[in-house]
Amino acid sequence: MDNEEDSTIPDISPFESIRKVNEDGFEYWSARDLAKILGYTEFRKFNNAIQKAEAACENSGQQVADHFAHLGGMVNIGSGAKRKVEDVHLSRYACYLLIQNSDPSKEIVALGQTYFAVQTRRQERADELAALSEDQRRLYLRGQLTDHNRQLAEAASHAGVVKPLDFAIFQDHGYMGLYGGLRTKDIHSRKGLKKSQQILDHMGSTELAANLFRATQTEDKIRREGIRTKEKANRTHFEVGKKVRQTIEELGGTMPENLPTPKESIQQIQQKEQKRLKQAPQLSIFDEPLETDS
User: Fold this and answer.
1) Which of 28, 66, 197, 243 is the most exposed place for a label (fewest CB within 10 A)?
2) C-alpha span between 210 and 200 (Å, rounded)
3) Strands (DSSP E) along the chain, which ranges?
């Protein structure tokens, strides 16, 4: 069995609330908006932090202009008069550097340091993942699911999902939400798998990613809301899966049950990778055997 809402909407980070996206789809933050959140009453004082951040950017080997876009514009101040207002559009990395060079005694600055450090690392990992081949992405995401399914099982056990049958029912609820009512056995059958084969080992990277999001968000919600009954845990798993499915639909994506089943299993890909490593020994993040989630 795969180890695999009365919803309370979590507070949006103040830094996320001022994030903007330009007409080309690139995200940015206004330095003026950021200065206000950080409690700077005068923008000229915030400019000192910007200059330090730009120096750090240059020292790291990055192009400053790629992360700090200085702008100037005229705004109305009443009675037809206008004045020039300077601003800087900041990338996520620029914000990270800027926060590091802001007043650390401010509580909001400490919050910002955590936010941008986490978000920057997430972006780095997304970039690393995008550079991998489909087989490598499958291996990576399958390993992530093994880890997070274990954590989900632990969270579920604290919510009263203890017996094997209880856990099977809990897992079915998650799959039914994500797969439009299909249970584990139904997905297994659609993929044409043998009884001994794990469905997660026969998913492409897109399908694995959807299931990873389902697992991580369900675990987080169970822990965050202190869910303590298996009935509510089951309902939570179903609603999270349903919400992930809704998001896929809104984005125009293919429903997970309609995604193609890869010709090779995770085990076959891993055997090929291990064979390649024997021929050309080198360190790889894919050379450790995956645990089954049964």
Assistant:
1) 66
2) 11
3) 20-21, 27-30, 68-78, 81-90
Q: Using CA atoms, how far apart are residues 102 and 197, in angstroms rounded to an integer?
A: 54
Residues sharing a CB contact under 8 Å with residue 133, sequence separation 6 or more, in sequence order: none
Give Cα separations from 11 to 6, 109, 222, 269 (angstroms).
16, 18, 17, 41
CA distance readout (Å), 196 to 27, 159, 176 = 46, 29, 21
CA 202 – CA 261 distance, rounded (Å): 6
Give the angle subtended at the CA of 149 by the CAs of 196 and 249, to the nearest 5°.
95
Tokens found for residue 99: 């926060």
Residue whose entry in the numeric block shows the structure tokens 């949006």: 12
Tell me, yes or no, if the pTM score tops 0.90: no
Pairing of strands 68-78, 20-21: unpaired
> End-to-end CA distance of the chain, in Å?
4
> Could you read off the pLDDT of 93-133 as tens digits, one per residue?
899 898 887 777 778 887 888 788 777 776 777 777 777 88
Cβ–Cβ < 8 Å for 188, 172:
no
Task: DSSP for 252-281, please give it.
Answer: TPPPGGGSPPPSS-HHHHHHHHHHHHHHS-
What is the token pair recorded at 89?
């559009």
